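Q: Structure tokens for this one, please.
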Amino acid sequence: MEKFTLELLFQIIGIGSASGLIYKDNSLLIIGDNSGYLYEYHIYSQDLKRHPLLENPTENTPKKDKADFESITHFGNSIYVFGSGSTEKRNKMIQVSSSHKKVIASNDITNLYAVLQSFGAIQPEDFNIEGAIYNGENWFLLNRGNGSSNKNVLFTIEGKNLTDDFAILSNEYKLPKIQGVRSSFTDGILVDNHIYFLATAEDTESTYDDGEVLGSLIGSINLKTMKIDFTQKISSTHKFEGLTLYSNSEQKIEFLLCEDKDTEVLETDIFKLTLDKK
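A: Here is the predicted structure, written as tokens:
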């Protein structure tokens, strides 16, 4: 898959630092890593709604206090939003009703994140979950290897819940470099037994501090072999952190992407990425 097109589709005013999105029924559900809201944007009417994920939610939450919601996924009638785990204040998983957009449960997954760090041999300062997938049976969590050890890890989690009854598998990946800097996972979704993922190269060795953005790529992992099928650089300037399926046919697959600009400006650009299959 070397042929691709990337285009700016539209801009949403009122959302900043977008870090994850879901497309469904001509609407987008979006999270921002410095916001305590789940945003619902109707594409045709351009109507934007805010649904609280936390008590007393704020936008542009100070960095030291933010829940750092980096990952969003859905299955059945539930939406799941994950904190990154990069500090002690970022260990929440929020379950939301798909129909009413109300919080069903707020879960402390500190124990899960501690086990993932131990199992994946990841130091706390290198732990940073930025992608989540749920298929009704297994959870898949992507650790972004933007710490000093470059630990890009895909965790597969089986079990009844994510608090005290689970088993873990892990696979580590060495992703391509962009301008001499190793890229790292920023999101992932499941399509036809493949995990399509985004990765960004950022000139920093910290999961906390931002660095110069050097570009982004897309790739896929075959769930049967757990091997990377392909990677393709898609930008030299954008820090893409959100990925969702837009359309899928025999000829091409289309995604919608959102970008984290690491600013306090409440504007979010939505891009369409098209990959040719033939």
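A few notes: Helices lie at 110-119. The chain has a mean pLDDT of 94.
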